[in-house]
Write a structure and sequence with these properties.
Strand content: 15-25%
Helix content: 25-40%
CATH class of the largest domain: Alpha Beta
Order of helices and strands: HHEEEHEHEHEHEHHEEHEEEHHEH
Strand order of the largest sheet: 5-4-3-6-7
CATH superfamily of the largest domain: Nitrogenase molybdenum iron protein domain
Radius of gyration: 20 Å
Number of helices: 12
CATH topology of the largest domain: Rossmann fold
Length: about 325
């Protein structure tokens, strides 16, 4: 699974907003601990949940990590294709061990809808995404016949906001608030340690030589995380964006326009390796980029999809591995 392909599953994210803000955005005033409760999901539908869920099925693998992070009782989840970013079940690497420990059952690979496998789990809450390769929005009516079904949009909110919404639906509001607060505190500590000079710019790229390369917009989750660490993210010019639908996270930038889009002092390559960074710096069309000239190109592994786990992985990188910026030549 390439990073560009995986971005069609874009999930979860991270921003510099506080846990209280995330919880407030998702809350509809439901009294904590009160059941039954009714929530309005991201499809504009009212979902009546009769009791605190005990058997949750996630048909959107991009959201499963956020459910696990707030300790929601996920019993089964769809999976991604087995590859470098996933384990042998197709669970994403950043939370695969947690899913295994909690005995989460793999349902089916995204794109291969299997209603019978969902029925067999006897769920009391089903989670569906509005869009992305792991969306089962076309099957919502069938799923509603099985159990209360909540539709979430993980593309227009960060993982903390998503966690707050899921916390309300599952009765795990306190956990959602706590994991967000813990993350914000750690991010602030890492920012202080990095002490990035004010005004230092950054670009975020999913590099695909010779093809469109997603470049992070300032409104996107990756940009908000990098900004929270002290960088000023450069917005890619809209004229090179080949996206057919409006997106807030990435501009799918033409190869010809990449040299005019990734102009930050530093470039962070998402879901990348050292080889990816070497290839980026060796690309003759990018030779004059400030980050290439000064060798400030850094790979961020396991980072195309941001949830609580992968966002902490990025903090781990900046806390213990990031070599710092080379001075401008």
């Amino acid at each position: 699974m390439t990073a560009a392909a995986a971005l069609t599953l874009t999930l979860g994210a991270c921003s510099s907003g506080g846990a209280e803000e995330a919880a407030a955005d998702a809350s509809t005033g439901t009294e904590s601990g009160a059941w039954p409760r009714t929530i309005t999901d991201d499809n504009g539908s009212e979902v009546q949940i009769p009791a605190k869920p005990e058997r949750i099925v996630s048909t959107t693998v991009s959201t499963t990590g956020s459910l696990l992070a707030i300790d929601a009782p996920v019993i089964a989840s769809t999976t991604g294709a087995v590859g470098p970013e996933t384990d042998s079940n197709g669970f994403f690497g950043q939370w695969a061990d947690v899913a295994t420990e909690r005995k989460v059952e793999p349902l089916y690979t995204v794109g291969s809808f299997d209603l019978e496998s969902i029925v067999a789990q006897d769920p009391d809450l089903i989670i569906v995404s509005t869009s992305g390769a792991d969306s089962e929005l076309d099957h919502v009516d069938q799923l509603k016949d099985i159990a209360p079904t909540m539709v979430v949009n993980y593309g227009n909110k960060d993982w903390k906001e998503l966690s707050a919404a899921l916390g309300e639906a599952t009765g795990n509001e306190a956990n959602a608030t706590q994991v967000a607060a813990d993350f914000d505190q750690r991010a602030a500590e890492v920012k202080e340690k990095l002490a990035i000079p004010e005004g230092t710019t950054a670009s975020i790229v999913s590099y695909n030589k010779g093809a469109d390369s997603p470049v992070g917009k300032t409104t996107g989750p990756h940009s908000r995380l990098i900004s929270a660490l002290g960088f000023t993210v450069v917005d890619p010019p809209a004229e090179f964006d080949t996206s057919t639908q409006k997106r807030e996270d990435f501009a799918f930038t033409s190869y010809e326009g990449l040299s005019e889009s990734a102009t930050g002092d530093a470039t962070f390559l998402i879901s990348a390796t050292d080889k990816t960074a070497t290839d980026f710096k060796a690309d003759t069309t990018l030779a004059n980029l400030p980050s290439v000239v000064n060798s400030n190109v850094f790979p961020l592994a396991n980072s195309f999809r941001l949830d609580y786990y992968s966002s902490n992985d990025i903090l781990d990188y900046f806390d213990t591995v990031f070599p710092g910026l080379n001075p401008a030549k």
